[in-house]
Design goal:
Order of helices and strands: EEEHEHHEEEEHHEHEEEHH
CATH superfamily of the largest domain: Ribonuclease H-like superfamily/Ribonuclease H
Structural class: alpha/beta
CATH topology of the largest domain: Nucleotidyltransferase, domain 5
Number of domains: 2
CATH architecture of the largest domain: 2-Layer Sandwich
Helix content: 25-40%
Radius of gyration: 20 Å
Strand content: 25-35%
Distance between the termini: 38 Å
Shape: elongated
Number of strands: 12
Number of helices: 8
């Protein structure tokens, strides 16, 4: 089991210093900036530190393919509440989603008195700014940079097969990184629905692997393609009036 401990100390109206400890000896501190007013600065700081230390500047051995085998120890119970979808604070709900998507299976423990953390006076060595829309971004051979939205990942989980249940995010990434991913035509009625939803410049582009029924819907953004939906060819998304209304 890989264990990561974090504790945020508020340093300003929109900032916190987050102490961290990983493994037997590695520890340090991060400065975290939050670009909006919040009553949950410490909790958001701890979430930002977890994301940074696990996904963006990994301190755990090997790139995580899921959250299984990882225990995160935080000091704020608001994080566990948000992870369960019970928080009333929108920013907490939105920013904690990586714990149930990319890091599905992670163990979260709340312990305000963790003894593993470094001293409160430990100087910060890195500065990070929290992004409220932390889409997972990957590199692909066909489309280049691809951002995976929460909605698309939720649709993927609804359609994931038995082969992918253990590491669903990793399985999705492998499909998106296939060099055989190719564009497919979208039915006219769905095209019109997408125009109404996203505008003339935001029509969803469909791609799929030639040997699989899964379709991936992308929006072309300034510097990346954004995965906005995942569905099967025979889903009602393509055959019912709900598709024209832009359900996905």
């Amino acid at each position: 089991m890989n264990i990561i401990n974090v504790k945020a100390i508020r340093t300003g109206e929109r900032s916190a210093k987050v102490l961290w400890h990983v493994g037997k000896e590695r520890n340090g501190a991060l400065d975290v900036s939050i670009p909006f007013d919040s009553t949950s600065v410490e909790a958001l700081g701890e979430l930002a530190a977890l994301r940074y230390l696990i996904l963006e500047n990994p301190q755990l051995p090997g790139p995580p393919r899921s959250g299984k085998g990882i225990r995160a120890v935080v000091t704020k119970g608001a994080i566990k509440k948000a992870m369960k979808g019970k928080s009333q604070i929108t920013s907490m709900i939105r920013y904690s989603r990586f714990l149930t998507s990319r890091l599905a299976g992670i163990e979260l423990e709340v312990n305000p008195k963790s003894q593993m953390l470094p001293d409160d006076q430990t100087p910060a060595t890195d500065h990070i700014e929290m992004n409220l829309e932390p889409h997972e971004t990957i590199s692909t051979p066909v489309l280049g940079r691809v951002q995976i939205t929460d909605h698309a990942y939720e649709r993927w989980l609804e359609r994931v097969d038995a082969r992918s249940e253990d590491r669903p995010f990793d399985s999705l990434v492998r499909r998106l990184q296939s060099p055989d991913l190719s564009p497919v035509a979208m039915p006219d009625n769905v095209v019109q629905g997408k125009i109404r939803k996203y505008g003339e410049d935001g029509v969803v582009l469909l791609y799929r692997h030639p040997t699989e029924p899964i379709h991936f819907g992308f929006l072309e953004c300034d510097d990346a393609y954004r995965l906005v939906t995942v569905f099967l060819r025979n889903d009602t998304l393509l055959t019912s009036k709900s598709a024209v209304k832009g359900t996905f």
